[in-house]
Amino acid sequence: MSVVDEKWEPTVLAFCCHWCTYSGADLAGLNRMNYPANIRVLRVPCSGRVNPQYVLTAFNKGCDGVLVCGCHPGDCHYVSGNYYAKRRMMAFKRLLEYTGLEPERFQVRWISGSEAGKFRDTVVDFCEKVRALGPYTGGAVSLSEGLGAGAELGVGAELGVGAELPQGGDAQ
Amino acid sequence: MSRIGVFICHCGSNIAGTVDVARVVEAARSFPNVVVADDNKYTCSDPGQQSIKEAIVEYNLDRIVIASCSPRMHELTFRKMLKDTSINPYMLEIANIREQCSWVHKDIEAGTVKAIDLVKMATAKVDKDTPLFTTTIPINKRALVIGGGIAGMQAALDIADAGYPVTIVEAEPSLGGKMVMLDKTFPTMDCSACICTPKMADVGSHPNITVKTLSEVEQVSGYVGNFEVTIREKAKYVDYATCTGCGLCETKCPTKVASEFDQGLGQRKAIYKPFAQAVPSKPTIDAAHCRKLTSDKCGVCEKLCPTKAINFADEDKLTTETYGAIVVAIGYKLIDWGALYGEYGGGRYSDVISGLQFERLVNASGPTEGHITRPSDGTEPKTVAIIKCVGSRDPEKGRSYCSRACCMYGAKHAHQYLDKVPDGRCYVFYMDVRTPGKGYDEFYMNTQHDGAVYLRGRVSKIFEQGGKLICKGEDTLIGKQVEVAADMVVLETAMVPADAADRLGSMLGVTRDKDLWLSEAHPKLRPVETNSGGIYLAGTCQGPKDIPDSVAQASAAAMKVAILFSKDELESNAMIAGSDASLCNGCGACVNICPYSAITLEEVTRRENSRMVTRQVSRVNPGLCQGCGACTVACKPGAMDLKGFSDEQIMKEVEALCQW
């Protein structure tokens, strides 16, 4: 790990489903809860919408940690989207860890629209862990090396939008 | 090149208190394609909206970002505002700098930096926004009700009274379902037939209702407002148009079969009406038992029929019609206790009967004309044991849930027995007594005053000894083993989903829970809707219920149908998935993953590489797609994308956060 700049703040991206976690985050605001400002929430309709490629891109472009959050199993607004997310992300998380990514940097959490406290606790805990790990320096290089055929899989840094998506139906 | 306007809201001091709005405005001006950035005290107010509209004209904007409260709060407000402008309402992104920034961070520096990032992400996303349009879906104002029990009849009557045509599909030869088999209904003890049969007659004679008995739904396609439903009307071998229902055929038919309506305690003929008040009041031939149809002998009914209504050559009829809404009211069946509970005799003892059989025994028009007698020898039982929770609350052998109505009808059976056999003794084995409902607990107390002995404990075994049925169990209140020597045992068995639930559920795209009950869209706030638009649930198909609850839910479902039918057309969701035929390889992964069955593969002929190619590609039905995006991730060639949350938009947001 490189020497950490004292002013360094981790960049943490959270993909939150509109119906549960995003509204849970709104509720945390309504209750004036406090959590680290490092978190940036990206709203998606459903956790099943999160393509693993977004997570790869986030790490490649400089995020230090990525959260994927959705409704509790069984509560998905779209019936089964979070189950797809769960299976995809669990397989994908193992792949990321194989490439050398610290497990704490990528987490999947189920937070309902009423669980403002759980949202805050998750963010506090996650940001703390990512901060302790320091900046993510793996970047595209180690991902590509770890994957071997990373370039063909479309994991390279020059990856353009609309390129072939590496994770597909086999993850369901 | 897009022309973006960014508008930052102070929300009084709600945002401005922790976020330096001037700095955010300044930063926004430097983002690519941002033509104008401004702030406003209250953006959602009329003056706030007016200033945005003016800026749109002044700067010739083609899309805007509003940094304010959560999009869950005012996204619709601002979309409506854009309807009055030159900009498409979907060329808008909201940066949530209140609920997810100013309200949760105390540090102004950190809050401002985060707000700038959030605006940055929204700006990157809006840059890739495309105009989206809703389409309108016509609504066919005809309803289909599947199931003609009390719930189905109530729903059909309410919809028909609202002025819309209804078709009821009933699997049995008559309307009425389970309720019409019951003798009396708790807690008022009014005769079930007296309140159910008038409803059946109302349904049968309602000008807006078509009844199809002995029928089932064969196939369903389409979506809300436009369901194409194929109904199979099974052969009845009697022409209902000419049959007068005189019943002469029934009296002369030589074949006797155990009556389903009387739960096997009585007999019926091979040409039969299940019960006297059946609607339609016309007979049906049971092809499995009719001598003419099985061995080409007899045919006496045909010779006797004064209107020549018998037609042995009758065949199943398939009809396909269009409906705008479907109410599922297929009800329940009772758990097959014989197969599960060997310790209760598993059906070997004819005097161990189910609660529904008891209803027929005690009913004045039942096989014993209301005399409570033992099925084995016809004598009056002097001691009756009632066992509750047979199959309910028993995760090991039966179901884990409570069937809700059994405590009450158990008390009713005890009351009815003691009423008809005043010198009899009645023991009720129970786990708990659950009587939530108007007048329910009072009814239970009365039953105890009648003399019913309630014993808390499960019966572990029933065996025959000296002509008596010994019920061996424990009274857990005194902590002792008890044995009751009963003449007859009544098992209050669990309600389980009807056989058709699973097949029908998958046909309609309605999910089933772990016990195969059909699932409502939300257990609290959308109890009669399903996740499939235009399909509603009524009665026990959704879970165990008593009659009042079934009727209430049926009327609620009917109301939902009436609301749907009050409009001439529906507006579809604009933010739905769409497939690019030039990229789609027709693998069908999206078809399998879609929870709404909104995607189909269809053959297209298109010019590719200067040649005409015919191949399969996926197509999204805009009426069915709800915009979850599950298919987009499953799509290997990247042909499927979600409008409003496209791959490109989300990637740009990620890039903007990290690199701008």
Fold topology:
The complex is a heterodimer of chains A (172) and B (660).
Chain A: E1 12-17, H1 21-30, E2 39-44, H2 52-61, E3 65-70, H3 81-98, E4 106-110, H4 116-133, H5 139-147, H6 150-153
Parallel strand pairs in A: 1-2, 1-3, 3-4
Helix pairs in contact in A: 1-4
Chain B: E1 4-9, H1 21-29, E2 34-40, H2 46-58, E3 63-68, H3 71-83, E4 92-96, H4 98-102, H5 108-127, E5 136-138, E6 143-146, H6 150-161, E7 166-169, E8 184-185, E9 190-191, H7 192-205, E10 209-212, E11 215-223, E12 226-233, H8 248-252, E13 256-258, E14 267-269, E15 271-272, E16 284-285, H9 291-295, H10 300-304, E17 317-323, E18 325-328, E19 332-334, H11 337-340, E20 352-354, H12 355-362, E21 383-390, H13 406-420, E22 425-430, H14 440-450, E23 453-456, E24 459-465, E25 468-475, E26 480-486, E27 488-493, E28 495-497, H15 501-508, E29 535-537, H16 547-565, E30 569-571, E31 577-579, H17 589-593, E32 599-608, E33 611-620, H18 630-634, E34 640-642, H19 647-659
Overview of the molecule:
The complex is a heterodimer of chains A (172) and B (660). Chain A is built from six helices and four strands; from the N terminus they run E-H-E-H-E-H-E-H-H-H. Chain A has 172 residues and is an alpha/beta fold. Chain A has a single domain (12-160), classed as Rossmann fold (3-Layer(aba) Sandwich), CATH 3.40.50. The longest helix of chain A is centred in the middle third of the chain and has 18 residues, at 81-98. Chain A is globular, with a radius of gyration of 16 Å. Mean pLDDT of chain A is 82; it is low at 140-172. Chain B has five domains: 4-127, Rossmann fold (3-Layer(aba) Sandwich); 134-233 and 316-331 and 498-572, FAD/NAD(P)-binding domain (3-Layer(bba) Sandwich); 235-314, 2-Layer Sandwich (Alpha-Beta Plaits), CATH 3.30.70; 334-496, FAD/NAD(P)-binding domain, CATH 3.50.50; 577-643, 2-Layer Sandwich (Alpha-Beta Plaits). In chain B, a hairpin with a 2-residue loop joins strand 24 (459-465) and strand 25 (468-475). Chain B is built from 19 helices and 34 strands. In chain B, the strands form twelve sheets. Chain B has a five-stranded parallel beta sheet with strand order 10-7-6-18-29, with helices on one face. A five-stranded parallel beta sheet of chain B has the order 20-27-21-22-23. Chain B has a four-stranded parallel beta sheet with strand order 2-1-3-4, sandwiched between helices. The model of chain B has no long low-confidence stretch (mean pLDDT 95). Chain B is α/β, with parallel strands linked by helices and 660 residues long. The radius of gyration of chain B is 33 Å and the shape is elongated. At the A-B interface, helix 1, strand 2, helix 2 and helix 3 of A face helix 3, helix 4, helix 5, helix 17 and helix 18 of B.
